[in-house]
Amino acid sequence: MGFIGSGYIGSAIARLAIEAGHQVVLSNSRGPETLADRAAELGPRASAATSGEAAAAGDIIVVTVPVKAFPDLPAAPLADKTVIDTCNYGPERDGHIPELDSKSVTSSELLLRYIPDALLVKAFNNIFYKHLLSLARPEGASDRSYLPIAGDSAPAKAAVTEFIESIGYSVVDAGPLADGWRQATGTPVWGTPYGPFSNEKGQPADEDTIRVALATATR
């Protein structure tokens, strides 16, 4: 697993991945030396690298950066790779992007303009990082939670589903990438099914809860 961006959600996914036996290569915009302590804390399955190296090293790449950083992504090593897009648009952080403000494209469709040959799957953008860590459950658990994914590549979605299942969650297929808006910031499936942020342990969200939340989203 390669990580481009190592903030709260990226670090949470990396921690769960390592616990499930995956190797992770972390990167950020400030250089691998700034991630040395985090890699050491995560243990021998973690290492730090440049974003280009992380993109080249991973079988699956997690892009978890501000939307305003899309132009800085290393497109070439992401070609033909399965890429998980965890990103959410926030004008207060990213500045105003007219196409996203007008909702003529989703943030994932915008991302594809910068990494056009990647096999993109939207995932992990609708759950609070503390809930992501606390709600992971083994396969077969009665209180296992579901996460929505959206994408256009069936093989990429299958790979992401396998990864998500390995780290303690089940998956709801939310449709093509163009429908990724259904799990964007402020929609019914964003945050709410897993409980309030004030409850750091969160609450499990079953398949029906996630499907209903996706279906009731409006644009």
Describe the structure.
It is a single chain. The protein is an alpha/beta fold. Helix content is 34%, strand content 15%. It has 10 helices and 8 strands. The protein has an 8-stranded mixed beta sheet, with helices on both faces. Helix 2 links the parallel strand 2 (24-27) and strand 3 (46-48). It is globular and about 45 Å long. The relative contact order is 0.14.
Category by helix and strand content: alpha/beta
Give the terminus-to-terminus CA distance: 33 Å
Order of strands side by side in the largest beta sheet? 3-2-1-4-5-6-7-8
Order of helices and strands: EHEHEHEHEHHHEHEHEH
Q: What characterizes the major β-sheet?
A: 8 strands, mixed
List keywords for this structure.
single chain; 219 residues; alpha/beta
Quick rundown:
With 219 residues, the protein is of the alpha/beta class. Helix content is 34%, strand content 15%.
Give the helix/strand layout.
Layout: E1 2-4, H1 8-19, E2 24-27, H2 36-42, E3 46-48, H3 51-57, E4 60-63, H4 75-78, E5 82-85, H5 91-94, H6 98-101, H7 107-114, E6 119-122, H8 129-134, E7 146-151, H9 154-166, E8 170-173, H10 207-215
Parallel strand pairs: 1-2, 1-4, 2-3, 4-5, 5-6, 7-8
Antiparallel strand pairs: 6-7
